[in-house]
Write a structure and sequence with these properties.
Elements (H helix, E strand, L loop, with lengths): L1 E2 L5 E5 L4 E6 L5 E6 L5 E6 L5 E6 L3 E6 L5 E6 L6
Antiparallel strand pairs: 1-2, 2-3, 3-4, 5-6, 6-7, 7-8
Length: 82
């Protein structure tokens, strides 16, 4: 889990292949981001809090608009960099 730079949101990675964004004050889920084909193991906000990146065991990193939840970019890798 990671807090947004302003501390108002919390993002969590999940084994159910989703990234969820929560209102840190109320605990209410505000976004559920779907699109990964395997477990998500890492999330990070951009320094300005406008984007959210998620990394998955499906060998992708997805970049999302942290307000709308729209996927803006997918980076594809290969296992262990080979």
């Amino acid at each position: 889990m990671v807090f947004s730079p302003d501390g108002k949101r919390l993002a969590s990675a999940s084994e159910d292949r989703t990234v969820k964004v929560w209102d840190a004050l109320t605990g209410r889920e505000t976004l559920a981001l779907t699109g990964h084909a395997d477990r998500v193991y890492c999330v990070a906000f951009s320094p300005d809090g406008k984007r959210l990146a998620s990394a998955s065991y499906d060998q992708t990193v997805k970049v999302w608009d942290a307000t709308s939840g729209r996927e803006t970019l997918t980076l594809k890798g290969t296992q262990w960099g080979f």
